[in-house]
Amino acid sequence: MVLDDDRQGDAVIEVAMRLFAAFGYDGTSLQAVAEATGQDPAWIQERFSDKLGLYLAVIERSHQAERVVVENALSALPDAADRREVAAAMYRLTDDYLRFCIANPQIPALWMHRWLGDAADIPDLERNYALRLINRTRDALRGAARAGLIDDRVDLELMVRTLIWSVYGFLHGEALARGGSSLADDPETQRRFQNHLHQLVDRVFKLTED
């Protein structure tokens, strides 16, 4: 029974994530989640307490998935011996993060709703989730800066945020894909953007010689 409840809970979280990503926290009701999942609203309330509890479960699920991608990509950075290896680690980070966001567009959408004032009455989401990964990446880059492998004049936190803003804007901003096709169906556009991120990393951190 517990296993069945866990599976049902996971299914509710996945559906709720899509609804929160589409309509925001403020625009999504527990009733809408219940109707989309076919679950009894009373069961959802018993499992997650209320809409806030469900939303926090969604944010936690998305954060853990994102954390795995970031941690795996950063694993090579502390052992980087030269700028070429730093560049390879940062290329992996940007490429893996871009692929993750393309495969899971609902996760960037959750945070973009938040940026627009959604769930404004819920404090500390950024500090408890987004900032953890930003700071983790910043601190890994600080080690490379101390070792003289990247330009130590760069504002590392803003650079990490710039990469995130760029990916989010690419996915949810102006469409670059030809003929109105989606980015997921346009490998050439994805390749162009990957190369652009690599160039951004190279130029800001001065990893390659002009």
UniProtKB/TrEMBL annotation:
- Kindly indicate whether the keyword DNA-binding belongs to this entry: yes
Taxonomic source organism: Streptosporangium fragile
Q: Which residues form the HTH tetR-type domain?
A: 6-66
- Alphabetized UniProt keyword annotations: DNA-binding
What's a Pfam family in this record? TetR_N
Signal peptide as annotated in the record: none
Q: What is this protein called?
A: HTH tetR-type domain-containing protein
The source's domain of life comes to: Bacteria
DNA-binding region listed in the record: 29-48
PANTHER family registered for this protein in UniProt: HTH-TYPE TRANSCRIPTIONAL REGULATOR RUTR (PTHR30055), TRANSCRIPTIONAL REGULATORY PROTEIN (PTHR30055:SF219)
Q: Indicate whether Isomerase appears among the record's keywords.
A: no
